[in-house]
Write a structure and sequence with these properties.
The structure is a single chain. The chain folds into two domains: about 5-130, no CATH class; about 140-285, no CATH class. About 75% of the residues lie in helices and about 5% in strands. The protein is built from twelve helices and three strands; from the N terminus they run αααααααααβββααα. Strands 1-2-3 form a three-stranded antiparallel β-sheet, with helices on one face. α5 runs antiparallel to α6 (about 95-115) and α9 (about 140-160) packs across α11. The N and C termini lie far apart (about 55 Å).
Length: about 290
């Protein structure tokens, strides 16, 4: 091995550290406001876990990175230029989502430009996972939340009526014998939907699931979150009728939320295992040689 080959990894690390410092310095105001939102907005409190887990996923792929040839990529340069445009546009238009999104794009572009397309492909999943730390624009968030409120209200109404309790729904307000129960934005299920999707992808990655298993886990999070949230609303309505209005708030309300989220995680793990078994069986069946009569 030539001396230059021995020094190449060290040089790559030095370059990566230098570029990382430049990115952090450039995006310091963006990161500061992002962390502030994680701290104040319960819908995105999971953001603190995203970067550490993405780094862990990148560390898992270190063997692939060692084999990747460090050659500048045109794709990386394109990502850098596109992210720079998005950053400037976001700054001029005071659009936080664009500037935050440009951080992920700039990181991906820097990796592609410094270490090549193979390294970028190897780190595709950690980079995509970083998107979980970026809050959705308020317009999109509200467009998702409002339908979820009505779905949760309708499902809760059905379950409460199934328990033999008379209930009348007016929009997202459930009229019960002991009073009214309003399904507010926080009870729409958007919080558990976002968190559960991230948890589903993380669990699939930890279990070594393939690409399609990971995609399935992300998709399956939506119906599971909706069902468990409907159960929570129905449980709150039933408890407030049988026990009293105090059961709809305070410790009981928070405790049922924790229990049902844990239940949703277990259901997501089981669904992921079933999907993995089905995909494995399909691959074995496709690889089986045809039977010649």
């Amino acid at each position: 091995m030539r001396p230059d080959d021995d020094r190449r990894p060290a040089r790559s690390v030095q370059v990566a550290v230098g570029v990382g410092i430049v990115l952090i310095a450039t995006y310091a105001p963006v990161l500061t406001r992002l962390v502030a939102q994680w701290s104040s907005d319960e819908n995105y409190s999971h953001g603190f876990l995203v970067i550490p887990f993405a780094l862990y996923l990148a560390w898992q792929r270190r063997a692939q990175l060692d084999l990747a040839e460090a050659r500048p990529s045109a794709l990386g340069l394109a990502l850098i230029l596109g992210s720079a445009v998005a950053f400037v546009a976001g700054q001029l238009g005071a659009e936080l989502f664009l500037t935050r999104l440009s951080l992920v794009g700039m990181t991906a572009g820097a990796i592609g430009w410094m270490f090549g397309t193979k390294a970028l492909r190897a780190l595709a999943l950690p980079l995509v996972f970083l998107l979980f730390m970026i809050p959705l624009p308020a317009l999109i968030f509200n467009q998702i939340t409002l339908p979820l409120q009505f779905v949760a209200s309708a499902a809760g109404e059905t379950l409460i009526r199934g328990a033999g309790i008379p209930v009348l729904r007016e929009g997202n307000v459930l009229q019960l014998p002991g009073g009214s129960l309003e399904v507010v934005q926080a009870c729409s299920g958007i919080r558990s939907l976002v968190s559960l999707t991230m948890v589903g992808v993380a669990i699939s990655c930890l279990r070594g699931g393939g690409r399609w298993t990971t995609v399935f886990s992300a998709i399956a999070a939506a119906p599971i979150a909706i069902v468990t949230n409907a159960l929570r609303i129905a449980g709150t309505g039933i408890a407030s009728t049988w026990i009293g209005p105090a059961a709809a708030e305070g410790f009981f309300h928070a405790f049922t939320g924790i229990v049902l989220f844990a239940t949703a995680v277990v259901a997501l793990v089981l669904a992921s295992r079933v999907a993995e078994s089905v995909l494995d069986a399909a691959e074995r069946l496709a690889a089986r040689p045809p039977v010649i009569a």
